Amino acid sequence: MSAPTETARGVTVELTDLRRSYGGIPALDGLTLHLAPGELVALLGPSGCGKTTALRCLAGLEDPDSGTVSVGGRDVTGVPTNKRDMGMVFQAYSLFPHLTARENVEFGLLLRKRAASERRSRAAEMLDLVGLSSQMDKYAHQMSGGQQQRVALARALAIEPTVLLLDEPLSALDAKVRVQLRDEIRRIQTEVGTTTLFVTHDQEEALAVADRVGVMRSGVLQQIAAPEELYSRPVNDFVADFVGVTNRVPGHVSGGSASVLGGRVELLPGSAGDGTATVLVRPEHLTLDRTAANATVVSASFLGSHAKVVVTPDAGAEGTAAAPLVVQVRSADVGSFSPGDRVCVRPTGAAALAVAAG
Amino acid sequence: MTGSPMTGLPLNGAPVKGQRAVRLRRQTWFRRVVVTVVVIAFLIPLYGMLNFTTHDPSGQVDLTTWRTLVDVNKISTDYPDLATGFVASVGLAIVTVSVMLVLLVPTMTWVRLRLPSMSRPVEFICLLPLTVPAIVLVVGLSPVYSWLTDWLVYFFGESVGESTIWLGLAYVILVLPYSYRSIDAGLRAIDVRTLSEAARSLGAGWPTVMWRVVLPNLRTAVLSASFLSVALVLGEFTIANLFSRTNLQVAMYLLGKSDAQISIAVGLVSLVFAFLVLFAMSFVGTTRGRTTRSPFRLRRNRQEST
Ligand SMILES: Nc1ncnc2c1ncn2[C@@H]1O[C@H](COP(=O)(O)OP(=O)(O)O)[C@@H](O)[C@H]1O
Ligand SMILES: [Mg+2]
């Protein structure tokens, strides 16, 4: 899928201990982030956690109060944006309104004083890459939001950037286009092999496109790991909650495992010590059967590829009035659960994180 | 818009439709009356001017005035003031527009990008001249000008120092509020911040950002600011007269004392010219039909959508 010669172009990117505060409030509080050559890293976090600030520091649009930015082993902390050779795609539509799609893509090449014929062929190649060869002579106002973002991507890639920076490029688009374009961004990034930082607040998006996902909170990187690891082995409460759906089940920890809902689950590193705790269990790590009922069905909903059943466990030994639990079941089984049914909910035993109760 | 304009179906039932129709009809009627009154108010003096310049005192049709006016040679020898005034006014228009643009466009862009907290003070300063009568402006400016003229004469001699062209600096102040409004509307219509950041990430320095990204997208706003300034400068009398400089209006005034018909004829021509300029303005920028729209067009659109 990827062309090896192109992949060799990716460079390492190192953000080291970046700090930036606005009016005394830190937006970045010692962010350290390393990107391997050709890697796509997604920065994920709730709105206001400092993702954009991190990306802007890397782009040179914002100066960090302290810390360093290095690209390909070279310290670029003090280098202005226009000398950094970074391709950017913004959340807001950013095509130059007075230029056509092709002229937009040629803009960076024009500034680099490339010959007209070279600009033309490079622009055509880039627009072809994003699937817009037929829209070359359109202005931004003649294109849909998705098309505009594609042109913006082509424009950013045309200059053969050292690093590609994407700041929530899909959040202004509607759901279907969003999924389509995110897959395409992944395809193109793999094809050109440019080291890429992708900022988003949408966990599904981050998990779908990235080699590694970094979860941020209040200017601090909480965990950075491959999507499946982030999902199955979150290091703390915040990551577990933010990535995917999690049930908070009261349990009792003893000797590296916990008793939950009458079953036992292994615990991940970083879990709370012995005693009562809250165990974070994914919906697919719970099962329903009809043996010894310990919960009541509240609702059952069909979601296409799978189904979701919400149950309220009876007040038990481990906890008092427990919160409703979400259980994932096969879509074929959803018909057999209706509100009011008595069921038995159990953990499958997959490893989970236990945090201090409360 | 509440009801659907295509089907005429109201959203809230039939009685509303009736009321709406009545209101609409009343609005249309009111609009026509206003337009008619305004047109008459404008046309009567124009007609008076035309009538006065095409008849001799006995009431006979006499086109000598207009023949003189279109004869460039004759008019510049018979009425040298007029030629001087005209040249001075054209020069002033050019200087005023240039200084205004160089001053205003980069400043306003910079304030928008980097100093949003300064946008209120800048707006206040730019609109301030609206509240200052020309006569007060002259009183304030006269020490500045006498000082400036002294230095200019000292360095460049009389012909430069006493030139009418320096009035352009006062005119920049005069046109500031109108130009500010136009350019501000233009800047609001584009996302300057994102566009300039995109350009910079592609390798553009600040001058390139201004020249290749901001200015082209402010085309309409810059044009309308320029047209307004030209119209204002060509019509300016008070300041020039009080500073004893001869621009077009002053020349016409002087002429009016000796030959009223020529003076009025020139007045008519310059009025019609100003109307044409303003009229042309509301059409500029519709060629490409997007990016920035002139404040006039925006206003018209708003009216359509009510
Ligand atoms: N130019 C700025 N001036 C003041 N505060 C800012 C500025 N930019 C960002 N912030 C603050 O820094 C924090 C992080 O912002 P940002 O990086 O944009 O978050 P995110 O992109 O994750 O939503 C926020 O609390 C925001 O209010
Ligand atoms: Mg952001």
TrEMBL record, chain A:
Domain of life from the UniProt record: Bacteria
Broad enzyme group: translocase
Pfam families: ABC_tran, TOBE_2
Residue span(s) of domain ABC transporter: 13-243
Swiss-Prot/TrEMBL keywords: ATP-binding, Nucleotide-binding, Transport
Keyword Transport found: yes
Keyword hit for DNA repair: no
EC number, as in UniProt: 7.6.2.9
GO cellular component, as recorded: ATP-binding cassette (ABC) transporter complex
Recorded GO MF terms: ABC-type quaternary ammonium compound transporting activity; ATP binding; ATP hydrolysis activity
InterPro entries, per the entry: AAA+_ATPase, ABC_SmlMolc_Importer, ABC_transporter-like_ATP-bd, ABC_transporter-like_CS, Mo/tungstate-bd_C_term_dom, P-loop_NTPase, Transp-assoc_OB_typ2
Record-given protein name: ABC-type quaternary amine transporter
Species, as recorded: Humibacillus xanthopallidus
From TrEMBL, chain B:
Keywords: Cell inner membrane, Cell membrane, Membrane, Transmembrane, Transmembrane helix, Transport
GO cellular component: plasma membrane
Compartment(s): Cell inner membrane; Cell membrane
Cross-referenced CDD domains: TM_PBP2 (cd06261)
Main subcellular location: membrane
Topology versus the membrane: Multi-pass membrane protein
GO aspect biological process, one term: transmembrane transport
SUPFAM superfamilies in the record: MetI-like
Domain ABC transmembrane type-1: start-end pairs: 86-281
Transmembrane residue ranges: 29-50, 82-104, 124-145, 165-183, 220-242, 262-284
PANTHER family, per database record: INNER MEMBRANE ABC TRANSPORTER PERMEASE PROTEIN YDCV
Family: Belongs to the binding-protein-dependent transport system permease family.
Descriptive protein name: Putative spermidine/putrescine transport system permease protein
Organism lineage string: Bacteria, Bacillati, Actinomycetota, Actinomycetes, Micrococcales
